[in-house]
Amino acid sequence: MARRRKGDAVHGWILLDKPQGMTSTQAVSRVRRLFNAQKAGHGGTLDPLATGMLPIALGEATKTVPYVVDGTKVYRFTVRWGQQTTTDDAEGEVIAESDRRPTPDEVDAILDNFIGEIMQTPPQFSAIRIAGERAYDIARSGEAVEIAPRQVVIDRLDLIEIEDDDHFVFEAECGPGTYVRSLARDMGELLGCYGHVTMLRRLRVGPLGEDDMISLEELEELSDKSPGREALFEVLHPVGTALDDIPALAISSMDAARLRRGQPVVMRGRDAPVLDGMFVAELQGEPVAIVEIEQGALKPRRVFNLT
């Protein structure tokens, strides 16, 4: 007999504005407890130092997490020139210093070096696995961490503000696997002045934008607002929120039943659409499955159990 899961069957997304000083895992646990949800996960780790968009999936929404993780991210961050740290952010120890400070024109001149497909070495203190161990665990033990460079994609990198000679503010739009801390470190090295991140805020993850974020404090207030926590559930976004970049395909209730059983659906008749690729099969606006169309058949790849 299967063991019954603790909690309620809650399905959807919370677009959390993660506070500084909290790990992504801690944030997921807090949100899961507020909703008393059986299952929860997040769409891309944020460092404790960072704030901003942390998409948290509850219930069946966890099946759509890969589509969020693989999406483009937008970050705003501040680089402090003149110091390199062990962690490439303000939490690490200073390991190198320079009196040199770059001018805005010098910074603008090097930005194109970081646009497009580039090779980037992740920070020593990162979640990269090396021989089964996390890089940050190896670094904390005092051992040298050898991390191979990896290819990442940066679509946009702009200098948007100069706070003072030491602190420049940037905005970057980049693909999965990009480390902003590495970007700050590498810009500092190229400019000959060193650099590390002192502020990092994620503004967007895939189709999920800053305007829809909600803070932990606001969630807790909504949870206390009514005995049934109805106000809390009003800010829960649908499971399909993370799938806005995938085209939708309306299906019948009979086809939905087949997909839910994991069976393919053949599109018949002269009016059947000629389609190819990935789609979200929907019944009356609700996602039933993520399907791949091959040779005129809908083949279920992820099936949602929302009933």
Task: Walk me through the structure.
This protein has helices spanning 24-35, 65-69, 104-110, 135-140, 180-191, 216-225, 230-233, 253-260; strands at residues 12-18, 40-42, 51-58, 73-81, 83-85, 94-97, 116-120, 129-130, 133-134, 150-162, 167-174, 195-205, 214-215, 248-250, 265-266, 277-283, 286-294, 297-303. It has 307 residues and is an alpha+beta fold. The strands form 4 sheets. Strands 1, 2, 3, 4, 7, 10, 11, 12 and 13 form a 9-stranded mixed beta sheet that branches. α1 (24-35) packs parallel to α6.
Termini separation: 21 Å
Order of helices and strands: EHEEHEEEHEEEHEEHEEHHEHEEEE
Low-confidence stretches: none
* Biggest sheet statistics: 9 strands, mixed
As a whole number of angstroms, the C-alpha radius of gyration is 23 Å
Oligomeric organization of the protein chains? single chain
The number of helical runs is: 8
Number of DSSP strand runs: 18
Structural class, judged by helices and strands?
Answer: alpha+beta
Helix content: 10-25%
Envelope shape? globular
Fraction of residues in β-strands? 25-35%
Mean pLDDT: 88
Write the layout of secondary structure elements.
Layout: E1 12-18, H1 24-35, E2 40-42, E3 51-58, H2 65-69, E4 73-81, E5 83-85, E6 94-97, H3 104-110, E7 116-120, E8 129-130, E9 133-134, H4 135-140, E10 150-162, E11 167-174, H5 180-191, E12 195-205, E13 214-215, H6 216-225, H7 230-233, E14 248-250, H8 253-260, E15 265-266, E16 277-283, E17 286-294, E18 297-303
Parallel strand pairs: 1-13, 3-12, 14-16
Antiparallel strand pairs: 1-3, 2-3, 4-11, 4-12, 5-6, 7-10, 8-9, 10-11, 15-18, 16-17, 17-18
